[in-house]
DNA sequence: GATGAATGAGTCTTCATTCAT
DNA sequence: CATGAATGAAGACTCATTCAT
């Protein structure tokens, strides 16, 4: 199995490096939101964790919401970078799909440590803070569809064999991967390990005999 | 397509019928938690929505947590009832699988109106209130696996064709359905409509030529 | 030592006998106020302890305050009865004084079981409910003074020996008895046992040699 | 009569001086608890009296209980200081006893303004907040006993004359002083004035003729 | 007479945010 | 830049009392 993305290029550490005060604050924000969720984390907690006075937080960010927004922004930056890397790899379509899903969902698991509060965070982002956390997922779906279409055109996948469109296949892949990400007790490692099998099961009927 | 479960038997209305005060309170609880989540819904809000004084809530329930617990209990009762009905239908394995998934996830979508707060609620249930909301999902997985195994023994599915175990297939079905349930803007209707296609795509390689 | 008062004449049981509903309620009131104090005892608690519905309490009493007033009234009735009995005994002045103090303070200890909440109760009685709980104590002081004066006239006590008035001696006796009553962990029995020694120590300088 | 303790050394003012916010809060706490008792005083009341926002109270103290504890702590500090001063005076045993009692009970009357709520406060301290308010009183009893024993050894008191032990005499002195402190309407001044007479009456039988 | 159900006013406590220094 | 101190608004929960049955 190829290494899906070059971890040295973009790591959590590189995005949360504790250089500036702002970095410390965002690192504290991520850590606490992961552990306790948005609501249960008080601004006091963040200040204590970041080792600064509460008022200092307000020097750098307009409030709790902006700290959250910035934390998400850094996450999406990392995710985006890894996605681009995954698309650039030259390998079989199956491997590329695995790499892309891993870049998106694997990064999510890594950053958010598969926290039980992930969807409280998502819910807050969408409904109270207006961060379009769903947009990257849509982009992901489009990328995946494009990848499958290209493979079909190259003859690497035969969608006609299962009577489904590229959109349908991308959709089901995405659904299954999402489900796997949310399986209880999933870690980045377990997700990483299970992914190829899931992709293979879904694609199995579409791979021409001469390739399989 | 068969009707997955007989809606006249067990509907949300039948479980939240506004007969007693307790029913009114639980109905208000459900409605507000769906709209605003657990934390953002205050006990005052619930009292206002239910049309009773705050103290009355405490006459019927020991606190906010117990209102939540009772709301979940009623949901699980409904879900359980529909699952049993789905398992009892006599039809093709594909239809039965669709019916079972619909009984579990369709009911969830219906009850919680696919709220963006679903996982805040799940998180609160699991971590702060100790309601085992995951247990029914495990039961669901076992039922699904059993169904697939039975179909294989009857020759209705050929797992050997894709080299997967019944557990694997059940797992992927569950992952995909979970993903579909969480798709943005999914409604009970859209989920209901998409489900057969998803199930078919995953099972397509395992259905013997003489049946398909 | 003579028996200070005839217990068969007036006992707590005879005043709180659980005949009527009102009796049950007052018995519950006494028991709970002794155990938890006035504020910490809720009307719910009283209803539960008395085995009646909360609304029933309000049939018999206008509110929590009146239950308290009635409870005090019954206590004072008992105390009064025992005082009269103590005064009627024919014995030495020292014994009579002991008997009188015991009738007042011993009854208090018995009724209120030397509760730590005694003065919260007194404070509530005086300041919020306007029950003159101090009045009986003043009457007691007058009785004691009268007793001492009579003894002096009879030559049984010689106040001139210590240069104090009957009022002064009564006062100090009363102070010391009050202190003994409030000693930590005092029970009715321990108070009863310590009382003669205390009285003797205070009177010792006034007893004529021919009597002592 | 000697001045029992040098008031300029340790006064209520010096302990509650309204320098810091915490001081203001404790001063308000003392004043309100004295006037209304613990339960009847709400945190809102304290905030209003102290002239700060309610949240400010929680900045300085963890809650109502801690405000109470701190108020008691300051009282005990003052009491302790005055006791030490009383013991150091060089004068007759009678005067020293009066001075010591005044340091303990006089300070209590002064600080708590002989409030009717004194024992609700004591009860709350002992039973709900675990402040050992009885311990200083025990220390006081030991000091008093020691003082009497020393006087006996010096021949200043003759306990044999009344057939009592030093403990007994200390006990009765303490009881009587406690009673005087709790006399209705006692003020610090009236207590101060009555104390020497009370002590004298109790000690009168033990003072050798050559001294008296 | 007795009660189950209901409530308005009040309790203590927390939190995101601001401001003078 | 950084902070200690302060706060208004809101949160969950309790209680003595009332009323229709």
UniProtKB/TrEMBL annotation, chains A, B, C, D:
Keywords: DNA-binding, Plasmid, Transcription, Transcription regulation. One of its GO terms (molecular function) is transcription cis-regulatory region binding. The keyword Transcription applies. Residues 19-79 form the HTH tetR-type domain. Residues 42-61 bind DNA. It comes from the Bacteria. This is Regulatory protein TetR.
């Amino acid at each position: 199995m190829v290494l899906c993305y070059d971890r040295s290029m973009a790591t959590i550490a590189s995005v949360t490096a504790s250089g500036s005060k702002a970095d410390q604050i965002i690192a504290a924000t991520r850590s606490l939101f992961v552990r306790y969720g948005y609501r249960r984390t008080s601004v006091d907690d963040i200040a204590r964790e970041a080792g600064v006075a509460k008022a200092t937080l307000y020097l750098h960010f307009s409030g709790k919401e902006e700290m959250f927004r910035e934390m998400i922004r850094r996450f999406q930056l990392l995710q985006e970078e890894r996605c681009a890397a995954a698309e650039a790899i030259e390998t079989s379509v199956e491997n590329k799909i695995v790499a892309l899903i891993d870049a998106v969902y694997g990064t999510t698991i890594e950053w958010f440590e598969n926290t039980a509060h992930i969807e409280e965070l998502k819910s807050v982002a969408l409904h109270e803070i207006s961060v379009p956390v769903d947009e990257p997922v849509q982009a992901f779906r489009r990328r995946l569809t494009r990848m499958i279409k290209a493979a079909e055109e190259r003859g690497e996948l035969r969608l006609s064999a299962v009577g489904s469109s590229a959109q349908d296949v991308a959709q089901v892949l995405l659904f299954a991967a999402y489900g796997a990400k949310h399986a209880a007790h999933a870690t980045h490692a377990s997700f990483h390990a299970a992914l190829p099998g899931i992709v293979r099961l879904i694609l199995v009927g579409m791979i021409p005999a001469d390739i399989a």
